[in-house]
Amino acid sequence: MRFERFMELALYAPGLGYYSGGRRVIGTGPQDGSDFVTAPELTPLFGQVVATQLRQALDATGTNEIWEFGAGTGALAEQLLGELGERIARYTIVDLSGTLRDRQHQRLQKEHPSLVHKVVWADSLPNALEGVIVGNEVLDAMPVHLMSWDGERWLERGVGLAGPEAGPEAAPETAPDATPDAAADTSPRFVWLDRPAPEGVRPPTERADGEYVPGTVTETHGQAEAFVATLAERMTRGAAFFLDYGFPEGEYYHPQRTGGTLMCHHLHQSDPDPLVKVGEKDITSHVNFTGIALAGQEAGWEVLGYASQGRFLTNCGLGEALARTGEASTAEQFKARGAMQMLLAEHEMGELFKVIGFVKGPWFEAIGFAHGDRTHTL
């Protein structure tokens, strides 16, 4: 099985996948049984500041609807609805997880009872949409295709079963991670299996194959790019902003990045092995923002800008928003400053996370990219 399909099942298989199994996945720490935290969970300042950019985009495109993809616990929706509720006619959440949708509805009903009637949930896209799209940490959760370089050719990395009960198709001796101890294990288990990639299939980079050392593993992002292209094709008017961790193509496929970016999270700990505790932990990959930009452009969007999250939030007024917390209690101020440090610091989320913006319709100077725009690096 191609890893892309394995990742899709591990995350989204009905009732069994990580996001569909009903367990709590997003929170503030392992004490609440969660596996990772997102920016809206750190502080409401995040959504308040992002709303500044979305409001400008709504005005510039003459639209009145927000579309949020992968809304998680509903924290960002709560923050955006509080800031933009009177400006918009509808807030559409597209989320495949029924469990998370229930949590989102309960949260919004509690926090914004007078506005929750504007919120609708969808599990598919209409043929045409207009408005402003926001996706925070949604692209990184889309299944990726794994490739490895053996020194002579690119291989597709897939997943198989090893062990005496796995059946005649299993071939653990061909797995990159096969060891004598692993081979002695009598229980079926998932193992890596490689096969030659089809002619011409390789990572989307201009670097020569010879620059990569044998054993290099990396990802390609067909599903994320197809998702962006579909949104661009179906949008008749509006803008879109995606916030996620990742790099432009030149950094993503640098020969020194020999292990790729695939990573798992469980109880706020990271590990690189997606083949154990399947369905119990997050599987994620960094975003190739060059591929995302090209997919959007080729489908009809124009790039508004591309910047680090720290620069984007600063441009949108995070410092001013923090200053407005001056009347809050000392404990609340301390918490807000700590969250701002997480959002802005280069060694935290400020540099690793990036923001890319698109528009269909009249181009405008988005405030989030007013300073520090890196579109030229894509």
Topology:
Layout: H1 3-12, H2 39-42, H3 45-61, E1 65-69, H4 75-84, E2 90-94, H5 98-111, E3 119-122, E4 129-136, E5 145-149, E6 154-162, H6 180-184, E7 189-196, E8 217-220, H7 222-234, E9 235-247, H8 249-252, E10 263-266, E11 269-271, E12 282-284, E13 287-288, H9 289-298, E14 302-308, H10 309-315, H11 318-323, H12 330-344, H13 349-352, E15 353-360
Parallel strand pairs: 1-2, 1-4, 2-3, 4-9, 9-13
Antiparallel strand pairs: 5-6, 5-8, 6-7, 9-15, 10-11, 10-12, 14-15
Describe this structure in words.
About 2% of the residues have low confidence. The strands form 3 sheets. Strands 1, 2, 3, 4, 9, 13, 14 and 15 form an 8-stranded mixed sheet that branches. A 4-stranded antiparallel sheet has the order 7-6-5-8. Strands 11-10-12 form a 3-stranded antiparallel sheet. α7 packs parallel to α9. The protein is an alpha/beta fold and 378 residues long. 31% of the residues lie in helices and 23% in strands. The radius of gyration is 22 Å and the shape is globular. α4 links the parallel β1 and β2.
Q: How much strand?
A: 15-25%
- The amount of helix comes to 25-40%
Q: Give the N-terminus to C-terminus distance in angstroms.
A: 32 Å
The radius of gyration over CA amounts to 22 Å
Low-pLDDT sequence parts: 168-174
| Biggest sheet descriptor | 8 strands, mixed
Total of helices: 13
Any idea what the shape is? Answer: globular
Mean pLDDT figure: 89
Q: Report the structural category.
A: alpha/beta
SSE topology string: HHHEHEHEEEEHEEHEHEEEEHEHHHHE
Number of strands: 15
Descriptors:
single chain; 378 residues; alpha/beta; 23% strand; globular
